[in-house]
User: Which sequence fits this backbone?
């Protein structure tokens, strides 16, 4: 499968239908430069429209504490949902919940790894905000270094997320090393999102982890 091209799904899909793309969009995920000399934050991301650099969403919160939780907000600061992440018995799991300590779980998933551990898949299902139907979505990581992800619904690829290797400030931190270890800590990402897809799903599709 071409992990760059995206296709419009057979019907609109959304967790938040107010963010459905009317046409194919390019989205940037950038660590917030909130430290001296422009150093990248270890916690926070801004999610931008690549066409004009307007802020669409922010991702912030606890990443390196227990439990890990990422808060997703819209451009006005309104909380949309939280992403909770944990690892148990070497299995990576995460859940998307409504904001708040007792938030309702919208979707959850546990990683499925290929026998050679070079491919990872996150099956994710949720209630479609458009028509109350059921959406079965899969987030795929096709390589061992986790610098590329793509999202499928049925037989269609609707989101493609790639590490921005050519960004001068991050390229030395985001590429696999000569020893085969993935060096990205907080990378910049670029996402292609098909028409009729909720843009906020980008934040749930691994790029902000």
Assistant:
């Amino acid at each position: 499968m071409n992990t760059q091209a995206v296709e419009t799904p057979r019907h609109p899909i959304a967790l938040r239908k107010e963010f459905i793309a009317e046409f194919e969009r390019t989205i940037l995920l950038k660590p917030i430069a909130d430290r001296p000399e422009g150093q990248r934050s270890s916690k926070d991301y801004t999610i931008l429209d690549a066409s004009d650099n307007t802020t669409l969403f922010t991702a912030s919160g606890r990443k390196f504490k227990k439990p890990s939780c990422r808060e997703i907000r819209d451009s006005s600061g309104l909380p949309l949902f939280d992403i909770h992440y944990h690892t148990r018995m070497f299995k990576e799991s995460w859940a998307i919940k409504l904001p708040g300590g007792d938030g309702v779980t919208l979707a959850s998933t546990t990683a499925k790894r290929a026998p050679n551990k070079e491919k990872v898949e996150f099956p994710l299902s949720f209630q479609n905000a458009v028509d109350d139907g059921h959406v079965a979505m899969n987030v795929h990581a096709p390589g061992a270094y986790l610098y590329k992800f793509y999202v499928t619904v049925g037989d269609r690829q609707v989101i493609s997320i790639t590490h921005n290797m050519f960004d001068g400030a991050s390229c030395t931190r985001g590429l696999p090393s000569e020893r085969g270890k993935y060096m990205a800590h907080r990378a910049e990402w670029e996402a292609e999102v098909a028409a009729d897809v909720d843009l906020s799903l980008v934040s749930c599709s691994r790029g902000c982890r």
Q: What stands out?
A: Residues 20-164+184-205 form a domain with the Porin fold (CATH 2.40.160.200). Confidence is low (pLDDT under 50) at residues 36-40, 166-185.
